[in-house]
Amino acid sequence: MSQEINNREYRQEILRDLIMQLHDGKTLEEVKPVFEKHFKHVSASEIAEMEQNLIMEGLPPEEIQRLCDVHAAVFKGSIEEIHQDQRQKVENQPGHPVTFFKKENAAIEALVEERIRPHLEAFKENDSQENILALREDFNLLWDIDKHYKRKENLIFPFLERYGITGPPQVMWGVDDEIRADIKTVQKMLAEYSGEREVLVEKIEETLEQVSEMIFKENSILLPMTLDNLTEDDWIKIAEDGDEIGYCLIEPDEKWVPARVDVEEKEKEESPRSGYVKFETGILSDREISAIFNTLPLDITFVDKDGIVKYFSQGKERIFARTKAVIGRTVENCHPPASVHVVKKVVEDLMSGRKDNEDFWIRMGDKYVYIRYFAVRDENGEFLGTLEVSQNIQPIRELEGEKRLLSD
């Protein structure tokens, strides 16, 4: 594991050096061989993570943006397919936002390759008013790409940022703005055309290349990254909000309906003789409820509104001893006389609403125990009882750095 971490740190230094070389004036072709040697078989997600780290260290996103074209040139046709299974799952879900983003990219690509480029070739041969008008119509259509970018920037990027991924969105947003500016420049040059054919052709070709590269970056880097990090609930929100911004060149032909299991029917079929509890946010069987509470790395005790102990969990590593004999006893009788007044005060404060919780922390040998008392209230605010939660937080206090890899 240490070797893997060292390799990643080494590659990150190489990445930093390449970015600075580009900053100092080296061309894409000059740095491409070094990038290809060290990064061709590295996943796009790892490179994005390294770029994120460089931004967090203070490197401006616009510097990393210089590396985008190197990514595209090296990865095209050879990017590691670590997302293949997830991609196939998405492709089997009609209307999924990722599927539709790709459909839009296909429509943009078709506009560029099947319409704009042939019209550009005709314009190279003859800069007639007819050919100029054809290109003006083309670029008016291409401006629809603004909606595609806005959905990406305002719907997808915020979710990535929520998961701590800020570098790649910042970099990509900068490139989006460059493409927007280039399209606007071409539109203006076409509207005011007065014979500078070579200059206009060069600008159009540069813009079309940028658009094509962004399609590749989205399909091969951004969208796989979102599939690695966003949840189905995130995608539901993205799908719901897409209509407000609008779509590029095409409209969704069907609404995405995520696959859902009727958990209540499933529970009836699997456990016809045992009970289950239907919560506001789901359904659990009696067995599952008991196992969940006993799996939590916490001691939980519930005392009802009358001060009667009704429940305690039975985790593997208990902090305070409990026996089933406490069930049905008053909470005062479950504590030493010296601390009864404290217990009563805590319960009174929670019951009255003066407090919602009360916390204590104590040392017990090699343990550092965090003890919390919570007022349990229903949706109408009525007091139902007191929940005591105890946890040994010593292992948590000893955590340092980050852990991003699976344990052996």
Note down, in words, how this protein is organized:
- A hairpin with a 2-residue loop joins β1 and β2 (282-285).
- By secondary structure, the chain is α+β, with helices and mostly antiparallel strands.
- 59% of the residues lie in helices and 12% in strands.
- It has three domains: 2-75; 84-245, nmb1532 protein domain like (Four Helix Bundle (Hemerythrin (Met), subunit A)); 296-397, PAS domain (Beta-Lactamase), CATH 3.30.450.20.
Percent helix: 55-70%
Distance between the termini: 9 Å
Order of helices and strands: HHHHHHHHHHHHHEEHEEHEEEH
What is the level-2 CATH architecture name of the largest domain? Up-down Bundle
How would you characterize the largest beta sheet? 5 strands, antiparallel
* CATH fold call of the largest domain: Four Helix Bundle (Hemerythrin (Met), subunit A)
**Gyration radius over CA:** 30 Å
The counted number of beta strands is 7
| Share in β-strands | 5-15%
Task: Label this structure with key terms.
Beta-Lactamase, five-stranded antiparallel β-sheet, 408 residues, Four Helix Bundle (Hemerythrin (Met), subunit A), 59% helix, alpha+beta, two-stranded antiparallel sheet
Structure summary:
This protein is of the alpha+beta class and 408 residues long. It is 59% helix and 12% strand. The radius of gyration is 30 Å and the shape is elongated.
Helix-strand layout with pairing:
Blueprint: H1 2-23, H2 28-39, H3 44-56, H4 61-65, H5 68-75, H6 84-91, H7 97-125, H8 129-142, H9 145-162, H10 167-191, H11 197-229, H12 232-245, H13 263-270, E1 276-279, E2 282-285, H14 286-295, E3 299-304, E4 309-312, H15 337-352, E5 357-364, E6 367-377, E7 383-392, H16 394-397
Helix pairs in contact: 1-2, 1-3, 2-5, 7-8, 7-11, 8-10, 9-10, 9-12, 10-11
